[in-house]
């Protein structure tokens, strides 16, 4: 059991740091350590519960032995009062055996109690370290996500304004200028292609308007 705690302490300290240095994804490594440690904590909790149960059994047996010591003492007194020394002697002999059992049970119970306290302390330490690792994992995960986001932004920004982007914008600008030039050329050609009849028709329209205005002034409107 103590070797187990020693192994866990090694994992969460120097060995953990060494493996994280080699890992491609430290967050995933920490998650794996947390899963392993969580399973180990469950095993230790079972061991602690078993140890506490053993301590209680020993305590119960110790109390029973002490009860029997007192009982045989009372029975020996009664036997003496009744003039039955042999019976009193047998009761005292049995009392001695229960006293011996009580002494052994008391030593075993004290040792079991000490072991229980040690195991509970170690379990508490493991849970505390587990919480610290969980916090470390969450912190590293946030830092990793932030670093990935910064890298993505930096790569995107570095692609803006590079030679390929500039050449692309220049090509689009040239196309727009070409479209504008073609539009102006089309308009010029359209003007040149107008017929003489079109121009005379416009002129006739102007003369008719002027004649109508003159007749109106002279009061000779139709």
UniProtKB/TrEMBL annotation:
Compositional bias per record (Basic and acidic residues), positions renumbered to this chain: 130-148, 164-177, 188-197
Top-level taxon: Bacteria
Acidic residues: bias regions: 198-208
Region annotation Disordered: where it falls in the sequence: 130-208
InterPro entries associated with the record: PspA_VIPP1
Compositional bias of kind Polar residues: 154-163
Family: Belongs to the PspA/Vipp/IM30 family.
Entry protein name: PspA/IM30 family protein
Originating organism: Cerasibacillus terrae
């Amino acid at each position: 059991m103590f070797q187990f705690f020693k192994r866990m302490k090694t994992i969460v300290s120097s060995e953990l740091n060494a493996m994280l240095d080699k890992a491609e994804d430290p967050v995933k490594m920490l998650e794996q350590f947390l899963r392993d440690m969580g399973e180990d904590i469950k095993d230790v909790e079972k061991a602690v519960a078993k140890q506490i149960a053993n301590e209680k059994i020993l305590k119960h047996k110790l109390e029973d032995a002490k009860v029997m010591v007192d009982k045989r003492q009372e029975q020996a007194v009664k036997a003496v009062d009744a003039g039955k020394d042999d019976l009193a002697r047998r009761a005292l002999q049995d009392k001695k055996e229960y006293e011996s059992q009580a002494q052994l049970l008391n030593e075993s119970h004290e040792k079991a109690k000490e072991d229980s306290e040690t195991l509970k302390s170690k379990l508490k330490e493991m849970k505390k370290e587990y919480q610290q690792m969980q916090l470390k994992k969450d912190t590293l995960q946030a830092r990793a996500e932030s670093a990935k986001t910064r890298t993505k932004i930096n790569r995107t920004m570095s692609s803006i304004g590079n030679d390929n982007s500039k050449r692309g914008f220049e090509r689009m600008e040239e196309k727009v200028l070409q479209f504008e030039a073609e539009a102006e050329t089309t308009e010029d050609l359209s003007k040149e292609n107008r017929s003489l009849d079109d121009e005379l028709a416009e002129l006739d329209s102007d003369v008719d308007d002027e004649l109508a205005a003159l007749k109106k002034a002279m009061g000779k409107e139709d």
